[in-house]
Amino acid sequence: MQDNLLHQVAFTLIPGLGPVSRKKLIQHFGTAYRILQASEDELRSMPGIGEALVKQIRLHKASLLASLLAERTVRFVTQQNIQPLFITDPAYPQKLLHCPDAPTLLFWKGNIDLNAAAVISIIGTRSNSPYGQQVTEHLVASLPKEVLVVSGLAYGIDAIAHKAALNNGQHTVGVLAHGLDDLYPPANRNLAKQMLNQGGLLTEFHLQTKADKYNFPRRNRVVAGMADATVVIETAAKGGSMITADLAFGYNRELFAVPGRLNDAKSAGCLQLIRQQKAMIYTGPEQFLDVMGWSFPRPEPAVQDAFQPDLSQTEHQLVKFLTQKDCWTIGELQQLLSVDPGSMANMLLNLEMQNIIRTLPGKRICLL
């Protein structure tokens, strides 16, 4: 296991060899070990592997420094219970395999399966508005629990999406632009620790790799590539979120952008994506889930029986309606039950006090 990992780490440390070339080599030779053992003539026979790369591979195999770094990485991964995910590993995020520049090796620290049936990336500006926060929290709260929420663990929209997922009992993954021996930004350290119990942290970067500006675009391709859909909440016309959005568009992923005020710089990027017909206009969770076709069976909540002595017949009917879809408006429920606003308010208060329902923005009601 460790010998195999040592070869995989050493292979990814070869300078000048990018993910596209690595992918070709793996497809041809099968394993990192076989690539590192290949003769120069075997390497030269590969299309796209020129003399310069053959020389780099030969020098790398003989480099003591590279060998020491690979051994140090293997020790750290083992000590910290980090799961290395080589591109041929079944636990590797399979959606990334469809991206031509997929990372060859990922380092994963968490407690969930990265190959969830439904994955959403939520991205946006680091300096969000209250509106951006509200839209993000509403979206995450309306997602089925089976949906994995991915973002970049940055300030602003990223952190809001991660926190909202934690608060709603959903799994969430932060994709990092540095090694797992560090955490940037430092203000999100506590958030990252919480995520390890309800998701985790993912990176392609090795030990002692700092969060340099050049690493963020590489990080962004993982955020875009491992998701079925990317939602841009707020962003300026230029910046990391626009890079991620363009990557998602290039990977043929579903792309949504939240429309904002015409004179708001924080919405300029979203409006641009919509105008260029790269992104679909995001109008709310119901529209998003409908477009994605994400429908998961909701189990009958155990709280119905547990609280039965404290519920009236009409309240039982209300709970039954709530099991039929994710959320209802108060007006819809009132019409279904044929009750007056005062009676409806009393029932909702009773159910909320007993932790059976919750109220979302827009006066929408759903089960806990």
Characterize the structure shown:
The chain has helices spanning 2-12, 19-29, 32-37, 40-44, 51-61, 64-79, 130-142, 157-167, 189-195, 215-225, 240-250, 268-275, 285-292, 303-306, 313-322, 330-337, 341-353, and strands at 83-86, 105-110, 118-123, 147-151, 172-175, 199-203, 229-232, 254-257, 280-281, 328-329, 357-360, 364-367. The protein has 368 residues and is an alpha/beta fold. It has three domains: 2-79, 5' to 3' exonuclease, C-terminal subdomain (DNA polymerase, domain 1); 110-292, Rossmann fold, CATH 3.40.50; 303-367, Orthogonal Bundle (Arc Repressor Mutant, subunit A), CATH 1.10.10. The strands form two sheets. It has a nine-stranded mixed beta sheet with strand order 1-2-6-5-4-3-7-8-9, sandwiched between helices. Strands 10-12-11 form a three-stranded antiparallel beta sheet, sandwiched between helices. The model is unreliable at 300-309 (pLDDT under 50).
List keywords for this structure.
single chain, 368 residues, alpha/beta, DNA polymerase, domain 1, Rossmann fold, 9-stranded mixed beta sheet, 3-stranded antiparallel beta sheet, elongated
Task: Write a brief caption for the model.
This protein is an alpha/beta fold and 368 residues long. The protein is built from 17 helices and twelve strands. Helix 1 (2-12) crosses helix 6 (64-79), helix 7 (130-142) runs parallel beside helix 8 and helix 10 packs across helix 11.
Strand content: 5-15%
* Structural domain tally: 3
Tell me the distance between the termini. 43 Å
**Unreliable residue stretches:** 300-309
Structural class: alpha/beta
Radius of gyration, whole Å: 24 Å
CATH architecture of the largest domain: 3-Layer(aba) Sandwich
Q: In this structure, how is the largest beta sheet organized?
A: 9 strands, mixed
Classify the fold: give the CATH topology of the largest domain. Rossmann fold
Question: What's the mean pLDDT score?
Answer: 89
Q: Give the overall shape, derived from the CA principal axes.
A: elongated
Kindly state the percentage of residues in helix: 40-55%
Beta-strand segment tally: 12
Strand order of the largest sheet: 1-2-6-5-4-3-7-8-9
The CATH class assignment of the largest domain is: Alpha Beta
